[in-house]
């Protein structure tokens, strides 16, 4: 936290020993040398917010008493970054690279698959084994009734964004319990890398309410609670307590005997704090979104973020197929959070094109683990039943995907089922009978869960399909043409939304936000991108995409009166850029 100006002394120790502040007065990187409340010199070197590694100048090293603790060479930022890239290329496995990257906290386009999908899935599977030191806050069932106090233990008192999971449905891997912490950590790394959200103002949170994964419960290294998952009212009460605690504001002195600017702090984070729900099970995801969306600054990335990036890809695809969305027939394999979220946003997009809601819903067919969703199907207590019923059809019950494709004749096939290779040769060939340029999206993560590979899609459709996937696939050459598969990664969406929401002081997030974001992404896809088979902009452009989304949303927030930061900035882009984290190394000044 910031220091008071002048000779700042924090406690009796500081007064007795004459310790003085180093670091820019009033900056978050300030340090009280010698004070037990603050970092020792070696801890300073380990703090990624303020450590410059070998970029410390000679003056820095003297002021911070670092001389001798690091080698004498002084490197530029550019040299430091190149060293990172050269080092990471020495590792062979994705997991080894992930571990190295986690230590460094330095991110570039080439490293994005290591920060998040697909390697984060492997990291979560082994999270207990590779756990080194805290990277977020673990709130457990044992903390019920004390969550406000536990949140107060987080050392950073200004938090703009939280990503929270309960670990029940991690990617396509299922219940990973506390090992799911890798997801919030990875998501928030992308908040910073792609949208410039200040890293110290982000908080990964794991709601550890147990796990039903017997392998984890028997694992001697498992870092989470060894108990079955809490359900029902006890679960709901816990999440309620967390939400209320996260936005409650109360000022007090951390040290009763000290009233300096360092020790005075906000305990939790206010109504403007963005809370992103991630990888909750179906039974809770929709319920919690409906419960909190109108009273908290929150969204569910699996439902709304996935919907936004998928619709962005579909909008871009229509520029290849030369058809409006509403003239297509859509078949979803999988009817969970992702598919239902995409379908609902797709309906909104088609209505914006001029279709009626009834016609839009009639164009969308869904297949779940029980087969085609039809009106006369007996209910089975499915927690998403009411959402699925909106897309139920007057048709006979069918279970075989090939039979369903032949019956429905979809022009767009979307997979979000985590069933690898479900879109086989016969399915893909059949899609070509339905459309000259069939659209095939295999969105399941991680890579080995994809419904089909890019190679299979292009080969079995004779290069005719418009393809996108949830995890990255390399370029594929077919009959002399190189195709660059699009990756429908939510990272195109959520960083820009977070930047706009945080900068504008928005307290609730409406559904239209995700359609605006989708259209913005689709509009950044160039004709050259489309000719290469891309329905998303290259990842090298993702920083600009995030900023463009934020600018469009900032205009929307002020136009609709939901922005609380006043006055309205005339230049939205400059305003947003002024709010972004500065990746350059700060100066270090000794305060006398």
Summarize the structure in words.
The protein is α/β, with parallel strands linked by helices and about 600 residues long. Among the domains are: about 90-280, Rossmann fold; about 305-490, 3-Layer(aba) Sandwich (Rossmann fold), CATH 3.40.50.720. About 40% of the residues lie in helices and about 10% in strands. The chain has 25 helices and 18 strands. It has a seven-stranded mixed sheet, sandwiched between helices. A five-stranded parallel sheet has the order 3-5-4-8-9, with helices on both faces. A two-stranded antiparallel sheet has the order 1-2. Strand 1 (about 20) and strand 2 form a beta hairpin. Helix 24 packs across helix 25 (about 570-580). The radius of gyration is 25 Å and the shape is globular. The two termini are about 20 Å apart. GO terms for molecular function: malate dehydrogenase (decarboxylating) (NADP+) activity; metal ion binding; NAD binding. It comes from Rhipicephalus sanguineus (Brown dog tick). This is Malic enzyme. It holds the Pfam family malic.
